[in-house]
Amino acid sequence: MKTTNNEGRINLRWLAHRIAGACNDIRPGTILILLIAIAACTTCASAQSLIGSAGNGWQTWNITPSALGPLGDLNSNNSPYWDVPFLTFNAGGYGGNLANKSVGWCLTSTGDCQGVGSALFAPGPLPFWAGPYDAATDTGGALDPKVYFRSTSYGYSGQSYKATLYLNTATNTFEINEFGWFETNAAGSVKGARHILFHGSGNPPGTATPDPVGKTVTFTPTTYFGYYYQDVSDPQTFSPYAGCIAYTIFAFNDSDCTAASGQGDHVFAVFLQTNTDPTYWVAGQDPSACTADGDCNLTLVKVRPARDE
Fold first, then answer.
1. Closest CA to 190 of 198, 182, 201, 199
2. How far apart are CA 179 and CA 211, in angstroms?
3. Is the separation of the CB atoms in 231 and 243 below 8 Å?
4. Do 24 and 117 have their domain in common?
5. Beta-strand runs (E) in 223-264
6. Residue-wise pLDDT tens for the chain (309 aa)?
7. pTM score of the predicted model
8. Looking at the structure, do residues 65 and 107 belong to the same domain, yes or no?
9. What's the CA angle centered on 156, arms 36 and 185, to 5 degrees?
């Protein structure tokens, strides 16, 4: 792990400034230079930047067989924080046997999770954002409770992204999460308006049809934004009925989503896939209750710049 600053991104401002200058200085007849400059401007015009708390960074893990287990760091031992044991779904009810189906198993298409579609689409053990993590001993990797994003555009306004729903599971088919993004400010201190990307099973549960896995939507967020999901299986209140809402900025979570016991402790995990611009896999799960009642909702969404195909 090398990145420890509070903004997990490559600073392209200087490069973008130089490229912009080059674009402005191009004279007629310099076709080759023009093509190179256009390609560079296209590559560096924008970036989706993760902002987190100081002391956190991108952590690496592996699934190489070792003394830790047949899949190395992936062993459902609560380290990192998202590598937790789930209970199998019990014919639509609660309870079941311990299973390997947290987001790590899904990203690598192993254990009890093939939900990404198949190994063909599973991205593998991508770096994740968290506190310091030692992959050799499988220790550390604590949750960063304050994670949000900056949509950075160099010379463009309204940068757009494509979000694809790869997985949305729950104990019951009528308790599927809603997933979307919310507005915040540069300090991550504002819980602004929420914007749905993928519909869940509604409030009360079962009153709406969830969006299907594989659906892709394009969205244009505010400059600073984060992600949220609404778990209708864990109601914040019954009058009116509303599932608890979990945010990538943990302090904004509804109380039922933060309790260390009972139904609470819903979390996000963000994984980085390097592409033309950063591509993120964003997962929401509720680990603390997953060994108690089998009510283990898990939503996995891939977010990439809209121009990337």
1. 182
2. 10
3. yes
4. no
5. 224-238, 241-247
6. 444 445 554 343 333 333 344 334 444 444 443 333 333 333 444 578 999 999 999 999 999 999 999 999 999 888 999 998 876 655 445 555 667 878 999 999 888 786 565 677 889 999 999 999 999 999 999 999 999 999 976 545 578 999 999 998 876 777 889 999 999 999 999 999 999 999 998 887 888 899 999 999 999 999 999 999 998 877 666 666 777 899 999 999 887 777 654 445 788 999 999 766 789 999 998 766 666 655 678 899 999 988 755
7. 0.82
8. yes
9. 135
Q: How many domains does the chain have?
A: 2
Kindly state whether residues 229 and 254 are assigned to the same domain: yes
Q: Please check whether residues 44 and 123 belong to one and the same domain.
A: no
Residue range of the domain that includes 276: 57-305
Show the beta-strand stretches assigned E in 131-215. Answer: 133-134, 139-140, 148-153, 161-169, 178-183, 194-198
Together in a domain, 42 and 63: no
Verify that 128 and 31 share a domain, yes or no.
no
